[in-house]
Amino acid sequence: MEVDESGAEPGAEAAGQADAEPAAEPSAGPNAEPFGSTQGSGHWNACGVHREAAATFTCSRCGTFGCPECLDSMQPMPLCVACAARGVNAVPWERRETVGLWRGFWDTTFELCLRPKEFFARPAVDSLGGGAFYGVVAYTAGNMAFVLQFALLYGVIGLVAGLSSGNEAAGAAMGIGIGALGCIMVPIVGVQAPVMAVFGMAFGMAGAHLSLTLMKQARGSWEASLRGVGYANAAYMWLAVPCVGLFISPFAVVWLEARAISAAHETSTFVAFAAVVMWRLLLTTLLFAVYMLFLAAVMGMVPGTLGPSAP
Ligand SMILES: [Zn+2]
Ligand SMILES: [Zn+2]
Questions:
Q1: Which of 59, 167, 253, 255 is the most buried (most CB within 10 A)?
Q2: Are 261 and 275 in contact (CB under 8 A)?
Q3: What's the rounded Cα separation, in Å, for the pair 240 and 131?
């Protein structure tokens, strides 16, 4: 394959432009005439890479004319293989080296929470380092933001309680003291949450993937399941929203996980929901049963707790 660099090399990608949503441009058919025709015989436009081939599409990213061989057919929009190889259409988190860690995280989080279907239609370029790593960061950040809210709340309650006692110095000291005590929880959660996140994702991956296997619906890899479960942890960022976040988060996790599993394994929404809900119900029932057995055993061992006590 002869590669002609002159027409195919798109301009250097600026970080600002990298994430702009490309205009919805339908893939040009064989009869379409891309504008600016100066190459070729005059009746058709040559592919930017293969000068002997006619262009059939314009890359939605770099604007290069491309022939069918240059079209990356795995993409939801017309994209040339050069752009696809550079991962320009990948999820923001998997482009974090280009767009920056901070922007990669927030763009990913917002897109997951607001437009999950578009998010999971993007190609995976970094399965393990992408989804799993994001899952740990989002879970940890969400939980840290959650305990920070409580630290502030404790501080205010302490302050009000102290001030209403009549001694303002004592009130201030009490508020700061209780607030600081609450703040100690933030780094503790920061250390403990990543471990919890890893366990949670391991359970999530195993549970969903085994359920799909049992239903004979597992079409993707274990890695794809883990990636989906990791990105579903974006729902824990709801914990950063005061008051309502706590109640939205658990439902959002299940919902996002179902979306992720459905996309990764090309299953119906119903099958994906069954896969992510079944193991949770099973595990909850099992834990409840073990707890009851434990309780029964303890009560049986302690004399006098069962039946009428001896005189
Ligand atoms: Zn391109
Ligand atoms: Zn070509």
A1: 59
A2: yes
A3: 20
Model-level pTM greater than 0.85? no
List alpha helices for 80-167, DSSP H: 81-85, 96-99, 101-114, 116-121, 127, 133-164
Do 283 and 255 contact (CB within 8 A), yes or no?
Answer: no
pLDDT digits (tens, 9 = 90+) for 190-244: 999 999 999 999 999 999 999 999 999 998 889 889 999 999 999 999 999 998 9
**HSE-CB for 223 with a 13 A CA cutoff:** 7
CA atoms 261, 204, 208, 271: torsion sign? negative
Distance in angstroms (rounded) separating the CA atoms of residues 311 and 301:
19
Listed as ranges, residues in the chain with pLDDT below 50 are: 1-41, 310-311
Neighbours of ion ligand 1 (CB under 5 A): 59, 61-62, 64, 80, 83
Residue 244 has which token pair?
């309502």
Sequence ranges of the domains in the chain: 126-297
Q: Is the dihedral of CA 155, 161, 162, 164 positive or negative?
A: positive
| 195: amino acid identity, one letter | V
Structure tokens at 132: 């799993």
**10 C-alpha to ligand 2 centroid (Å):** 14
Q: Residue 210: CB partners within 8 Å, gap ≥ 6?
A: 279
